[in-house]
Batch of 2 targets.
Target 1
Amino acid sequence: MKSKLSVCKVKLLSVAIVATLCLAPAIFVPGTSLAQNLPTLGDTAREDLSPLMERKVGEQIMQSVRRDPDYLDDGPVSEYLNKLGNTLLEKRPDARGETAYDFQFFAVRDPVLNAFAFPGGFIGFHSGLILAAQSESELASVMGHEIGHVSQRHIARMIGSQKQDVLIPLAALLLAALAARSSPDAAMALVMGGQGLTVQRQINFTREAEREADRVGFQILRDGGYDTAGMVSFFGRLQHASRNYTDNGLSYLRSHPLTGERMADIQGRMLDQRYKQRVDGLDFYLAQTRVRVLQDSSAQGLLDAATFFNAQVKTAQEEGVISAEYGLAFVAYKQHDYARALKLLNQLIKKVEQSPAQKKWLTQTSAFASLAIDIHLANQQTDVAIKIAETALQDLPLSRGIVYQYAEALIAANRTDEAGTFLRDQVLLYRHEAALQNLLAKSYAVQGKQALQHIALAEAYAIDGALPAALQQLDIARRDPDVQYFDLSVIDAREREWKEKRREEILDEKKNK
C-alpha cells in the first residue's frame, strides 16, 4: 500500500528541514492551497514562532491529517500511544517545555519506518515503526526523541537561526514537500530557487537538533523507568538495516540523520546507567496486533496477518500468544466472519481470566472490550454491546474510543434520548472533539430533529476548520420549519463568531499570497 503520508523524500530532507516538517504533505487537500490553510507567520525579522503560533500551526495541520484516509483512527491504538506518552511526561514534566504543551500522539498507516513531530506537541508514528519496535522501551525511545524536538522548540529555533537570511515561509516548505510526491528534484528547486537558504547552515542546525532531541529523549526514557538500551538497540538496528536499503528505504534515518557521533554520544550516556530490566505489558503487544491488522485491511493483507499470527501462536511467550490469538479474532471480524470472531474472542477472554499475570489487562486496556462491542454491533446485538460498553466505561472512564462505541450502540438500539443526553454531557467536557458532534447529529437525525442535527454538524465542521461548511449548516438549520427560538439564538451567536473568524482567515490568506 502506498500511503499519501509517506512522501517526504530524501532530496527534500537533504536540505535539513527538521523532523517537525517531515510529513507535512499530509496536510494537502486537493483543490486547496497549502498557503491558504496556514496562519501568517510574521516577517523575516522575527526571531522565532511564538508558542501560541506553534500550537495554531500544529492544530491546523492536524485538522487535515485527521481527514486523511491513512490517519489511523483507532481507539485502542490511540489510547495506548497517549498513555505511553503521558506516562513518560509524568515522570519528566519539564519535557513539556516552557509552554507546557498538551501533547497528542497518533498513528498513520504506512509500512515505512518513520516518526515525526508537528509544531505544538503533535507526534505521529508510522505503523511500520510501531511494528518494528521489539520492545516498549524501543518505542518509548523514539517517542522521547520526538518529545525532545517539540520541547526544545526546534521549528521556532530553526526559523530564528535564519533571521539574517531570507526566511523560507513555512507554507513554502510544505509546498516543497508536496512537490516531492512527483519529483524530488522539483521539490529541491522549489526550496532552493530564489530563497537564499544557506544549506550547510541548516544541515548543522539539524545535526545539533538531533543531538539535543537525543539528550532529552534519553532523560525521558531513563526517568520513565524504561531500558535506556532500547534507544541504542533501535537506532543501531535501523543503522544496520539501512545498509540493505536503496535511496528510497529507511525514511527515519533520512529525517533523523544518525551519525556515528550521535550513536557514540548515546552509548556514552549509558555508561553510568545501571541495567534496568523491564517486562513489557500486554497492552504493548495488543497495540502492535491491532496496528498489524489495520495497516493493511485488504483481503490479502488480512490473510498475511492471519499467517503471521498463526506462526506466532506456536512460537511466542505468553503475551505473544495472547496477542496473536487476539489478532486472529480481529482478522475474523475484519473478514465479516462475526461468529468465528466472537468464538475466538470469548475463548481468549476465558484464557486471560485464568492467567494471574495477564487478567488485569481485561480492565486496564480497552482492546478486549472494543473488539467485543464491534462484533456485537455487527451482529446487531445492541443490548449486549451496550452492557459491555457500560462496564468498560466503569473501568476506563477516560477511554474516548469506548465513549464513541457506547454512543453508537445507544443510537443503534434506538435509545436516542439516552444517546443525546450522554453526548451532550460529553460535548461539555470535550469541546474540541468533532466526532462527538457528528454522533450527536446522528442521534438527532434518527429523532427527526433536523435543526439540531444541522447545528451539531455545523459545530463538527467548525472544529475541523471548515468554516464555510459550518456556516452553510447554520443557514440550513435556520430555515428549518421546526427550529426553536433558543436554537435561533445559538445559530446567531455561532454565525457572528465564525464569520469573524472566517474574515481573519481570509486576511491571513491574502498575506500569504
Target 2
Amino acid sequence: MHPAEGEAVRLDGSSLTLEDVAAVARLGRRVALGEAARERMARSHAWVVAAACGEIVQSDGTPMPVYGVNTGYGSLARLRISPDRIRALSWNLVRSHAAGVGPSMPVPVIRAMMLLRANALAKGASGCRPALVETLCAMLDAGVTPVVPSRGSCGSSGDLAPLAHLGLVVFRGPDGASGRAEYRGRRMTGAEAMEAAGIERLVPGPKEGLAMTNGAQLTAAVTALACHDADRLVRTAEIAAALSWEALRGVTRALHPAVHALRPFPGAIACAGNLRALIAGSTLVDSVPDKVQDAYSLRCTPQVVGAVRDAVTYASRQVSIELNAVTDNPVILVDDPATNKAFSAGLFHGEPVGFAADHLKLAMCELGAISERRVYRMTTGLLSSRLPPTSASEESPNLGLMIPQTTAAALVATNRQLAMPSSVDSLPTCEDQEDHVAMSTTAARRSAEVLENVWRLVAIELLTAARGVRRRVEHGQGAPGAGTAAALALVGEVVGQPGPAIEALARRLSRGELVDAVEAAVSLQGVSHG
C-alpha cells in the first residue's frame, strides 16, 4: 500500500475521526505525531524513567512501587522488579502475550488498530517515548502490517494478544522473535519487513511493553470501520426500500412528515424524508385504487430503519470517544500533585465499545431482516401486487428469484445466530485478578460479520425490486422517481447468474457506488455520528 497524497493526519490524542480512521486504514493516508503530543509524551516518559531508576521514592525513602514499571503484572503486581530487569520485563510481556490464534485480521482492520494505538499513546498519559508512536506512523506510511490473529482477546485488559503481535514487530528482544508481517504483498518475518521498509525496531523501555499491549484498540478498530460503513449501508438500504415500494406499488401516506412529527425519533424522520425524496415523481406508488395501507415490511420501514439509524448514531458516538481515549494502565498524570503520578484504573475495559458493537450488530440484524421480508413479498405471487410468482420471467420460464430469496433467508438466520450480545458473557482470567472481562472483541468481530451479510441482503433486495419495477414499467403501470431511476440504472449494469451477481452488486454497494449515483440525482440525509 502506497501512502496517499495530501496532508497527513496529525495524531494529538484528541481529534481523530471515523473518517480519518477509514482513510488511513483503507486509503493509506499518511500519519504523523503532533508536536504538542510529542512534548506530553516526553514529560510522562521522563517520569516513568525516573520511577524505573528508583528516583521516585516513598516517605521512608524506598523506591515507589509503580505497577508495570517496577512490579509484575496482573496477579503478580506485588512482585518487585529490580532496575536491571525492567527492560526484560517489557519484552517478556510482549513475548508472552503474543498468544493469538486463528486467521489474521484483515489488513485495513490491523492498520486501524495501529493508528488507534498510536493516537492513544499520543495523549501523553502512557509514559512511553515519542519514538514508539513515530515507529507506528512509519509502519503505516510504508505499509508494514503485522499479522494479527483474530482470536484470543477477551477485551479486558484490552486486546492484549492482538496488540502483543503488533509489539513483536515493533520491538526487538534478546531472543530474536519478531512475529510476522505483510509488506508489499508478501508475508515475511517482522524483522525482514521492517528492514525492507527501512524502519528501525525499538528495544522496549520501561512500561513500553505494557503501553503497547494494554488497550482495546482491536475492538475499537473493527467497530469504527463498521460504524463508518453502517452510514453508507443504511442509505443503501433506504434506496432498496424505495425501489421495493415502487415494485409493490406501496402507499406513501405512511411517509407524510406530519405523521412522523407525532413520534419524533430522529432516525425515523430522516428515513421517511429520504424515502420521500427517492420516490418523488414516481407514478408507480399510490397506483392501486382503494389501497389504504401496506404490510409492515413497507409501512414500518421508517420505524425500523429509523431505529437502526439511531442505533448507528449511538454506536458511532461511543466509538468516536474511544478513538481519542487513553486505555492504558496505569496512566501517568504528570500534573497531579501526588508524588506517585501513576494511577491504576480500568480504562482498558472494553465494555463501552462492546456495548456499542453489540447494539450496532442487533440493529444491522433488523436492517437485513426487514429487507428479506420485502424480498419475500416481491417473490410471492399472492403478496406482490400481481408480480409473477417468484418474479420469474415470462420469456424464459425458470424459478425466477426463488433461490436468491432462500439465500436471503439463510443470511437472516445466520445473523440471528450471531445476534446474542457478546458483552453479557464473561469468564475470569489472570488468576481471577481479571474477574470480569468484556468479550468486546467478539462483539466487534460479529458486528462486522453481520454487516457483511447485510450488504448481500440489500443486494438481493435491489436485484429483486429492480426486476419488479422494470416489469411494471414495461407493462405501462407507471414510472420510477428520480432517485429510484438512478438506482435502477446502476443495478441494471449487474447481470449474470444470481450468486455472482449478488456478490458483484454487494461489492459495488459497499464501495458506495449506488449511494453516489443516487445522490447525484437526489439529496439524501446521512446518519448522524452524534
